[in-house]
Amino acid sequence: MKHTIKELEDIATQVRRDIVRMVHGCQSGHPGGSLGCADFMTALYFEVLTHNADFNMDGTGEDLFFLSNGHISPVWYSVLARTGYFEVAELATFRKLGARLQGHPTTHEHLPGVRIASGSLGQGLSVAIGAALAKKLNKEHTTIYTLHGDGELQEGQNWEAIMFASHNKVDNLIASIDYNGQQIDGPTEKILSLESLQAKFEAFGWHVITSDGNNMEDILKALHYAKSLTGKGKPILNLMSTQMGFGVDYMVGSHKWHGTAPNDQQLESALNQLTSTLADY
Amino acid sequence: MKKYTYTEKKDTRSGFGAGLHEAGKRNENVVALCADLKGSLKMDDFANDFPDRFVQIGIAEANMIGIAAGLTIGGKIPFTGTFANFSTGRVYDQIRQSVAYSNKNVKICASHAGLTLGEDGATHQILEDIGLMKMLPGMVVINPCDYNQTKAATLAILDYVGPVYLRFGRPSVPIFTAEDQKFEIGKAWMVNEGTDVTIVATGHMVWKAIEAGEKLAELGIDAEIINIHTIKPLDDEAILKSVQKTGCLVSCEEHNKFGGLGESIARLLATEFPAPQEFVAVNDSFGESGTPDQLMTKYGLDAINIVEAAQKVLKRKK
Q1: What is the mean pLDDT of residues A141-160?
Q2: B-proximal residues of A, 64-123, CB under 8 Å
Q3: Residue of B255, B208, B213, B225 whose CA lies nearest to B110
Q4: Cβ of A143 under 8 Å from any chain B Cβ?
Q5: Tens digit of pLDDT for each residue in A54-79?
């Protein structure tokens, strides 16, 4: 391990500070899902992904990550900055005119770390499969990681991709679901029930593992186990339970903080709950 | 009028199939993807000779576009193949976000465009695809006119880096362009020099424009005929130069009059050199079942329609 569990937890706390400050700074964006995935994204970027210091689009010889639910861009931008893809100070430009940190991630402004635009939901798994096929054609033994919202699975394209991945033995792919049970208009079980995602993915021929996405030790255990399952003929799904808004008491578990920015008072309250560990941008 | 003849008819989709096969030989990064239409798209030779680089997607076009975008990230050059309807309208948002906005080197290759798909009817006969694709920033849109030009276009887009929409068709049409032609993206082809009226045609309408030019010559009208195979980027210079000489223009396309080549030309003329224009195109309608020839006649896309449009536009010329 490059870091201890405690170190990774501290980094995740800083990432959460970044998220609420970014969203507050432009009074827009999506804090809920971003906070819920801060632990996973920290573990992935600081501990699991093998990635080159210099960004290149082709990603030759390194693991790749694709964020399908692009609206949680704040958490991705934070971990990208804090792992050296660009200056941490640039986080202050989030969603502002002329920024590389667009509301949803894009390659158009050439932000290092981003390889495809996402935001219109349901497209990331297909793109990741394409990248995984390219890795195989190039005889590379690196791994493709993805993250998807659970509500996002209501988009039909996902199921085309899920079917394709198992039929074609795309076994260099580890997809994670941010299984927080919330979407913009309310709980997923009320909007459009997902039923048993584990049973669905298994029926589609995937190897499914489950994890607690707000427990650093469990996330690492899941990702390392998932990695050990690659190359065995099946795509791998990490069904990761999370809580939307995790780390900020008044945001936890509610869809109301899917796409709402905190005001000055709420920001202060959030920051009081999140101790700065790496210095704010 | 320059004389054009042909000895053989072939479908443009076979030109694509031959071009794709050659592209596969030339560049090992070429990957072909199809959505359960390998035979219709003439991808068999590629699939047989390069099985590792052929991806059968199944009936899942959205997934195909996404996978193609992802393949580019590993340095691959994906060519997707399905009918024009399923290559564009069905997957517009996938193309918009994952290909065009993300500026991925994906070649979207679309067969059975327009009315000449024939008997399957309007569910499959897309007449809006040029408009959909040309509105996407950065998208190159190409609609070649015969077998040889389609093969040449397929090889030309291999060497171009960026998203491309390549549109071709199902019916057998005369082969009248050179086998060894040089295909330059964005460059018009002067089919016939003339002085009275400019006829600009794309795709299957180019041969009909030649037939129309012969009839116009019999009527004493000297038509300049230009083949625009690349609708975007449009060869502004060639069109303006011609209209500055002739003073009027007829545009011909197997597409809705809204959103097609004709409108691109109208925009150019309105801003650079206002001149009368007539549109030989489908009049804001869906198609229907019938043979290709019957449909082209019913929807006003025959040589006689081009002749009449030329006569009409000549009357409006100052």
Answers
A1: 98
A2: 64, 66, 106-108, 115-120, 122-123
A3: B255
A4: no
A5: 999 999 999 999 999 999 999 999 99
Element (H, E) at B307: helix B303-316
3-state SS of B182-199?
CCCCCCCEEEECCCCEEE
Alpha-carbon span B86 to A262, nearest angstrom: 43
- A129 part of contact set with chain B, CB < 8 Å: yes
Of B117, B41, B116, B114, nearest to B82 (Cα)? B41
| Best residue of A69, A106, A120, A123 to probe chain B, by most B CBs closer than 10 Å | A123
Per-residue pLDDT tens over the stretch B250-269: 999 999 999 999 999 999 99
Domains (range + CATH), chain A: 5-273 (3.40.50.970)
CATH 1.10.530.10 fits B189-316, yes or no: no
Q: Do B9-174 and B189-316 share a fold? A: yes
Tell me the per-residue pLDDT of A213-251, one tens digit each, with 9 for 90 and over.
999 999 999 999 999 999 999 999 999 999 999 999 999
Mutate to test the interface with A, among B97, B99, B105, B107 (most CBs of A within 10 A): B97
Superfamily of domain B9-174: Thiamin diphosphate (ThDP)-binding fold, Pyr/PP domains (3.40.50.970)
Which amino acid appears at position B109 of this protein?
C
CB B277 within 8 A of CB B250: yes
**Is B67 in contact with A164 (Cβ distance < 8 A)?**
yes
A44 touches chain B (CB under 8 A): no
Nearest to B75 among A58, A126, A129 (CB): A58
Query: pTM (2 decimals)?
Result: 0.97
Contact B75 A117 (CB under 8 A): no
List the domain boundaries for chain B.
9-174, 189-316
